[in-house]
Write a structure and sequence with these properties.
This protein is of the alpha/beta class and about 350 residues long. It has nine helices and 18 strands. An eight-stranded mixed sheet has the order 4-1-5-7-8-9-12-13, with helices on both faces. It has a four-stranded parallel sheet with strand order 15-16-17-18, with helices on both faces. The chain has a two-stranded antiparallel ribbon with strand order 2-3. It is globular and about 65 Å long.
Length: about 350
């Protein structure tokens, strides 16, 4: 009996992990991905079939947008039957947005899609990229005793933690622990061994085919409240032509100013069909609008709860649902529902 070697497709979009320092100028430059084995010779010790696909030109993560998310989905869909898992090398700045978007775009996913990157270029002596890359590949290829993927989800792996992609946010621009999943525990922790928390990993039907999606509508905005915010600013923002949805970042467990003009503007916007989703500015915890009078007034104004959603997830989920031309009622219902493990509604 011939045992098939695990297979992983590396997709390099851009970012620090794929750059080397020019010895003459000191500037960071993208290197040819064919030279990966020279920088990470440890990959040769894997008994894996590892192939690579490189964005040309590479994309700085600050320039990442829905068209590139669609490109990633097309690559994964085209190669889905040929690989056991996928590793996406991505700049850290917008990695959580991409991970969240892909979690909705790759419906009925039954294979690992692991996003990773680094804070230091992979060719530098103290790089975190080498360990992130090696472990991500191992996780992407990991199967259980039945031959099924152990982690059939879109995830981010960074500094010894495997996190659900749509629960993750970037928290640090300098340290190696650049990402955190505040409202959902890590799916795996890596030390001497990789310890999978199987009870936290989504259960999937491995017989269902992948259903890729590509449509997004970017007529959305994030509005962060702060003491002293002006009526004219909020009014102008909510009357931007074409605006369809707002992620409203409120205080604490979903609280906002009780000024009559503020609630009036929100009510007028929701009456026009604009969908306003309430998430907390706090790193952890969730919105509970029924808890305080301030939140109840938001409910009365037509604002809906985003529960414990990250800003990245709330934004991309809205873009995704709007892009599929659902009715306002359907979108409001789905934003209040857990579609792919992105929120915990609680009691």
């Amino acid at each position: 009996m011939i045992v098939k070697s695990p297979s992983v497709l590396l997709i390099y979009t851009g970012g620090t992990i794929g750059m080397i320092e020019n010895p003459e100028t000191g500037a960071l430059e993208n290197f040819n991905f064919d030279h990966l084995l020279r920088h990470v010779p440890e990959l040769k010790r894997f008994n894996y079939r590892i192939s690579s696909y490189q964005f040309d030109p590479p994309i700085d993560s600050s320039d990442m947008e829905p068209s590139f998310w669609a490109r990633l989905v097309k690559i994964i869909n085209y190669n889905y039957d040929y690989y056991d898992g996928f590793v996406i090398l991505h700049g850290t700045d917008t990695m959580a947005y991409t991970a969240s978007a892909l979690s909705f775009m790759l419906e009925d996913l039954s294979k690992p899609v692991i996003l990773t990157g680094s804070q230091l270029p992979i060719g530098t002596l103290r790089t975190d990229g080498k360990e992130n890359l090696i472990t991500s590949i191992e996780i992407a290829a990991a199967k259980d005793k039945n031959g099924n993927a152990i982690v059939p989800e879109v995830c981010i792996f960074f500094e010894n933690h495997l996190m659900r992609g749509n629960r993750t946010t970037k928290i640090n621009a300098e340290n190696f622990n650049a990402f955190r999943s505040y409202n959902y525990p890590p799916l795996a922790k890596v030390g001497i061994h990789i310890k999978y928390e199987t009870h936290l990993i989504r259960k999937v039907d491995y017989n269902k085919p992948l259903r890729p999606h590509y449509l997004f509508d970017t007529n959305v905005v994030i509005l962060t409240l702060f003491p002293g915010i002006q009526e004219s600013i909020i009014d102008a923002l909510l009357k931007v032509p074409g605006l369809k949805a707002v992620v409203l970042k409120t205080f604490g467990s979903g609280n906002a100013p009780q000024k009559p003009w503020f609630l009036k503007i929100l009510k007028e916007a929701t009456d026009r069909g604009i969908i306003i989703v309430n998430i907390t500015q706090c790193s952890s915890g969730r919105v509970q609008m029924e808890r305080y009078e301030t939140g109840i007034h938001l409910l009365e104004s037509g604002v809906i709860s985003g529960f414990d959603s990250t800003p990245e997830c709330a934004l991309t989920k809205l873009m995704f649902l709007l892009g599929h031309k659902l009715s306002e009622r359907e979108i409001r219902y789905k934003m209040s529902s857990c579609l792919i493990g992105e929120i915990t509604k609680g009691s």
